[in-house]
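B., you asked whether I could sanity-check this one before it goes into the benchmark set. Here's the sequence:
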Amino acid sequence: MRRTDGTSERYVVGVDYGTLSGRALVVRVRDGAEVGTAMREYRSGVLESVLPDGGPALPPDWALQDPEDYRDVLRHAVPAALADAGVDPSQVIGIGTDFTACTVLPTLADGTPLCELPELRHRPHAWVKLWKHHAAQPYADRINALAHARRESWVGRYGGRISAEWQFAKGLQILEEDPEVYRRAERFIEAADWIVWQLCGDETRNVCTAGYKGIRQDGRYPSADYLGQLNPGFADFVTKLDGPLLPLGGRAGALSARAAAWTGLPEGVAVAVGNVDAHVTAAAAQALEPGRLVAIMGTSTCHVVNGTRPAEVPGMCGVVDGGISSGAWGYEAGQSGVGDIFAWFVRHAAPAGTDSHERLTELAAAQPVGAHGLVALDWWNGNRSVLVNHDLSGLIVGLTLATRPPDIYRALLESTAFGTRMIIEAFVDAGVPVTDLVVAGGLTSNRLLMQIYADVTNRPLGIIGSAQGPALGSAIHAAVAAGAYPTIHEASAAMGRVDEGVYQPNPDNVRTYDALYAEYRALHDHFGRGATDTMLRLRAIRNAAVRTTAATTDTILEVLR
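And here's what the prediction gave me:
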């Protein structure tokens, strides 16, 4: 393809790795036009009960993945996207990727995943731990307790509590539950960086995951002395994280011959530094200015916003210098379950005739705000922010014999908006302004949900102008890595897009939601801040019962063998 001035158009490829699939997007460099796309589902999906080739039953709260599925995205989605675009691969100047986080894997020094070694393939800890692997909560609790006892300076940068999802909690779990796998792991790496390693053959680390997920603040990780107090064998953990640390939008290397054969792209094109799906979306949504909070809503929600200075915000996921874009302090918070909660209700609780999002949304939209008499807590997958406790669980209050499925569905939609308001208020109370919201992700098509968010937060709500926000963001970073733009800000201005103020708060709805939010907040604090440990005790009872059942099943299978 050629421009009217006779010069060839230039393109970049963005690859977005999600929870269940990977998507490739071909984007025109000069204006961000999306000219081709393709998707590849992971063959193994999320491993929550057993490994692909058998082995022991996985305990509760585990979530693993197969790294081969990630390579398959490069082999299938990228060539298909190029074919869909009708673009000559020689016109592609770079490729960028983003990933769910904290999704991590142990590897050898050359990047070989331990789960691909025959002698370790049946060891669960050798596999990729997906972001929603929450079985490391006890280890996160120990990390937090010791950090406060020692008054570690970094803990305040993470809202006072490290999540069970982050690198150090998952690493400590491996050490104490499978020391052999820990010993064999010469590298412990975010999938965001591992896939870049696969693309260019060079091991790199990005400042985003290192800062938010790897407890790297002010140029250093937690000390060996601190880690050794957690477990003497853990003192060397940081050596497994070492690698060249590069800024977002930087060039990690050149596409290798092997990866060129996978993707159909020319060998040698620029490979951008890895990034996180949520953080990379801010550029796609033209939301790099301080105060514009981006909510990337899908199975879960991640909230990112730039600020002008560092502040300690209770319960946030982290604040990192340059964590979203250079020249600003990037803040992150999140909700561990959003779309997953709505999908749970449709699949498992809605009766025939109402068991679709479309029908439930239609019925829920017909009722006035507050007419259902319900309030719910959005903790079906634990709480990431602001309580940082994945052992918490969901709750619905106000059920009566008159309650109907659309009432519950609407209450669940509202509960996630209340959770986002909690996060916004935590930012604002700490001196981090949030002036407006931009929403990205698959849930933007639900107009009722979007209006609820505008009303609950009492802020205008814009919608990203792309159905492929993370992939577009990765493509923007690829354009910078390839030298087409000098900065992410300039590339975002040219290639990103947003529909401003699509949803405005309705004053009448705002008043009613203020009253409902007060009830949500009372329940949030009662069940989440120590007034009662009912949810934690129920989780412990459930886990004990599941482990007993699994042990019995394994014994029976062993006898049958």
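One thing to flag: The mean pLDDT is 95. Otherwise nothing jumped out at me.
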